[in-house]
């Protein structure tokens, strides 16, 4: 018998004899007899005559089988009759080794041992060994392994029962061979519920929701059993289709069959209703659960977070904490993301503490989310501490901290961290380069930015994308190199994108290059004619011009009104005393509106002594121009800052979130307020983070 010895060069002479039918001079006992350590026994260094090392063969050629000896040890192989074919039954030792290797998770070594069967052929492998090999293929997602094992089954006349047919079907699905799996399913002489749910699950995994639901309808004609796994799988199909009406019909069917109180079905229904927009129905199912599990809580919290109900998600998180249900790492990472959306550092700190209380302090996903939250909301020292304490970091962890330094305008620190990332053999991604290039742009590090941009393809094999070109156009615009920025846009190896034209428009607006700015704004308007912001950009360019441009600006306003584009009211959020306050432009509905307006007037008087003079030249994308003239200083972000200054201690950081781009007047005013009041103020507008401190902003007055 010829065996490839390249993988088994550490086997001793006696081990090979024991496992392949040769008499042994000594008895060695081991959990895996064929895989004894070379330290414990002598290594077989000179091959037997009847064995040849696989490494000596020509590449790509299969070894030629040596004729089977006429005399074989009865201890190993037993000749049996099977349909007039002579089949050899392998030793129980070799099959046992394969099963033990699979049991211990050593899947690749198990498949290597299976190669002995393939090379010689004709071995009668039992069901347990096939089952173990199938498990190894599923664990490795090995397409080659699947084809090898299935071919061996067919060539040796193995007749699987319904259990093994389902296992073979699952093996193909988990390895991504859906076409072969569907053919196997159609050819199955007998199908049970597991067969149907297995193929439906495979279709759902590749997004074939309609076909999965069609199979359910076909199956329902033969099997009308209320199996929880079947219903859960079908609910997933309804979720993928986004059809709440079909989901409700299925729900009614389960109610009639009394299957709705199953935990898996309840969680699937909550997920389906929440993702289809019926959040109230999802909450009803959640409250009706006889036992609320961790998965149930997580699913409901996810539903609220998915539709922007951040406060409800946080409230539900605290209810979960009070109920005593054990949280998992998904719960913590989810609630941290919700806190980031709410700009609530207090809630985030509680989630951070819960991360350690629940023994998930080393969880990479949750810690990466914390790094992202702390860095965005001005606690870069907290973010760095969490990052350095992480026992294992992935590229997302590095990206989060580099982006944090970028948002803070700390370009040198971002570049230093990027260099350390490369030194530690972590491969950067497109997002990594976008973050570090943004840091160079915001910190006016042009030379370093161009070096990193050029190294993307030469050193790292990453072709720059449109988002990288947009950053470099902005970098050139900050340096006043408008012509070079336009040349870079035209020289890109792809058609300019919206972000690239928008970067050029911003550069032209800052440098007052109205002719090129008008050309770029018209290009931007033509690419997205239904987007209101593009009309506003073009309007601002025309308003800055003179002569016939004034008439063009009036024509743009008429177009906006004719198309019925709604100008949404400006809105900002700020958290004070663990309560989120929502303020609108010129808001008088807030309980403290009178006090807030008085505080804003007081602040404007104070900063006016330091050179502040309102003179807004641009129109906000979501504020009517007439209202701006009537109520200067009462923009929603200024009202939020006024509320924060008067309602929180001087040392507390103010965090404002707004749904529109901050205007020039408010930007200048908040800079001066941060200097006079010695407050750190963070404003997250529609385009980026603005970190105000000591009269400066992280954006460098360029946004």
TrEMBL record:
<feature type="domain" description="DYW">
    <location>
        <begin position="611"/>
        <end position="703"/>
    </location>
</feature>
<protein>
    <recommendedName>
        <fullName>DYW domain-containing protein</fullName>
    </recommendedName>
</protein>
<comment type="similarity">
    <text>Belongs to the PPR family. PCMP-H subfamily.</text>
</comment>
<feature type="repeat" description="PPR">
    <location>
        <begin position="293"/>
        <end position="327"/>
    </location>
</feature>
<dbReference type="InterPro" id="IPR011990">
    <property type="entry name" value="TPR-like_helical_dom_sf"/>
</dbReference>
<dbReference type="Pfam" id="PF13812">
    <property type="entry name" value="PPR_3"/>
</dbReference>
<feature type="repeat" description="PPR">
    <location>
        <begin position="394"/>
        <end position="428"/>
    </location>
</feature>
<feature type="repeat" description="PPR">
    <location>
        <begin position="126"/>
        <end position="160"/>
    </location>
</feature>
<dbReference type="InterPro" id="IPR002885">
    <property type="entry name" value="PPR_rpt"/>
</dbReference>
<feature type="repeat" description="PPR">
    <location>
        <begin position="161"/>
        <end position="195"/>
    </location>
</feature>
<dbReference type="Pfam" id="PF13041">
    <property type="entry name" value="PPR_2"/>
</dbReference>
<dbReference type="GO" id="GO:0009451">
    <property type="term" value="P:RNA modification"/>
</dbReference>
<dbReference type="Pfam" id="PF14432">
    <property type="entry name" value="DYW_deaminase"/>
</dbReference>
<dbReference type="GO" id="GO:0008270">
    <property type="term" value="F:zinc ion binding"/>
</dbReference>
<dbReference type="Pfam" id="PF20431">
    <property type="entry name" value="E_motif"/>
</dbReference>
<dbReference type="GO" id="GO:0003723">
    <property type="term" value="F:RNA binding"/>
</dbReference>
<dbReference type="InterPro" id="IPR046960">
    <property type="entry name" value="PPR_At4g14850-like_plant"/>
</dbReference>
<dbReference type="InterPro" id="IPR032867">
    <property type="entry name" value="DYW_dom"/>
</dbReference>
<keyword id="KW-0677">Repeat</keyword>
<dbReference type="Pfam" id="PF01535">
    <property type="entry name" value="PPR"/>
</dbReference>
<dbReference type="InterPro" id="IPR046848">
    <property type="entry name" value="E_motif"/>
</dbReference>
């Amino acid at each position: 018998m010829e065996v490839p010895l390249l993988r088994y060069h550490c086997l001793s002479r006696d081990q090979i004899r024991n496992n392949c039918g040769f008499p042994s001079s000594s008895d060695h006992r081991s959990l895996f007899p064929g895989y004894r350590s070379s330290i414990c026994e002598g290594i077989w260094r000179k091959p037997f005559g009847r064995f040849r090392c696989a490494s000596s063969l020509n590449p790509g050629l299969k070894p030629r089988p040596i004729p089977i000896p006429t005399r074989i040890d009865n201890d190993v192989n037993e000749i049996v009759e099977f349909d007039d074919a002579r089949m050899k039954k392998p030793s129980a030792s070799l099959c046992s080794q394969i099963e033990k290797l699979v049991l211990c998770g050593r899947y690749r070594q198990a498949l290597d041992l299976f190669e002995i069967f393939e090379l010689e052929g004709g071995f009668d492998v039992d069901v347990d060994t096939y089952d173990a090999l199938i498990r190894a293929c599923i664990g490795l997602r090995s397409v080659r392994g699947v084809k090898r094992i299935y071919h061996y089954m067919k060539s040796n006349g193995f007749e699987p029962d319904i259990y093994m047919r389902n296992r073979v079907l699952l093996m193909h699905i988990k390895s991504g061979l859906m076409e072969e799996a569907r053919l196997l399913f159609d050819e199955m002489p007998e199908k049970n519920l597991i067969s149907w749910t297995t193929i439906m699950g495979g279709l759902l995994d590749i997004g074939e929701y309609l076909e999965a639901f069609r199979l359910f309808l076909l199956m329902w004609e033969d099997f009308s059993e209320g199996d929880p796994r079947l219903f859960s799988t079908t609910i997933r199909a309804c979720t993928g289709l986004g059809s709440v009406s079909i989901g409700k019909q299925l729900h009614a069917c389960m109610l009639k069959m009394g299957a709705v109180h199953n935990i898996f079905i309840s969680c699937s229904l909550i997920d389906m209703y929440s993702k289809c927009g019926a959040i109230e129905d999802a909450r009803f199912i959640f409250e009706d659960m006889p036992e609320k599990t961790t998965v149930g809580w997580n699913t409901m919290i996810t539903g609220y977070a998915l539709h922007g109900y951040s406060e409800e998600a946080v409230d539900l998180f605290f209810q979960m904490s009070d109920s005593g249900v054990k949280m998992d790492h998904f719960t913590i990472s989810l609630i941290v993301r919700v806190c980031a959306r709410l700009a609530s550092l207090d809630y985030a700190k509680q989630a951070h503490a819960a991360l350690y209380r629940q023994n998930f302090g080393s969880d990479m996903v949750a810690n990466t989310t914390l790094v992202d939250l702390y860095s965005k909301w001005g606690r870069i020292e907290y973010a760095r501490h969490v990052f350095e304490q992480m026992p294992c970091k992935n590229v997302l962890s590095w990206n989060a901290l580099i982006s944090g330094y970028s948002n803070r305008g700390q370009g040198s620190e971002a570049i230093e961290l990027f260099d350390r990332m490369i030194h530690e053999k972590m491969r950067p991604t497109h997002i990594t380069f976008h973050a570090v290039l943004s840091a160079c742009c915001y910190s006016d590090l042009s030379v370093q930015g161009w070096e990193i941009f050029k190294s993307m393809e030469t050193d790292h094999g990453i072709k720059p994308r449109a988002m990288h070109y947009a950053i470099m156009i902005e970098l050139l615009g900050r340096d006043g190199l408008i012509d070079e920025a336009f040349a870079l846009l035209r020289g890109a190896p792809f058609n300019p994108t919206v972000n690239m034209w928008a970067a050029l428009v911003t550069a032209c607006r800052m440098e007052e290059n109205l002719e090129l700015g008008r050309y770029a704004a018209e290009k931007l308007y033509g690419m997205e004619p239904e987007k209101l912001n593009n009309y506003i950009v073009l309007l601002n360019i025309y308003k800055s011009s003179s002569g016939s441009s004034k008439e063009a600006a009036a024509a743009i306003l008429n177009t906006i009104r004719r198309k019925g584009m709604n100008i949404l009211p400006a809105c900002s959020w700020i958290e004070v005393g663990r309560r989120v306050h929502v303020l609108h432009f010129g808001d008088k509905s807030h309980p403290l509106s009178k006090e807030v307006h008085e505080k804003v007037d007081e602040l404007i008087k104070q900063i006016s002594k330091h050179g502040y003079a309102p003179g807004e030249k641009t129109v906000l994308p979501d504020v009517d121009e007439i209202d701006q003239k009537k109520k200067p200083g009462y923009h929603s972000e200024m009202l939020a800052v006024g509320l924060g200054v008067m309602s929180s201690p001087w040392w507390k950081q103010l965090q404002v979130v707004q749904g529109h781009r901050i205007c020039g007047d408010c930007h200048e005013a908040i800079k001066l307020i941060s200097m006079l009041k010695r407050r750190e103020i963070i404003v997250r507008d529609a385009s980026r983070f603005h970190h105000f401190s000591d009269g400066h902003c992280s954006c460098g007055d360029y946004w």
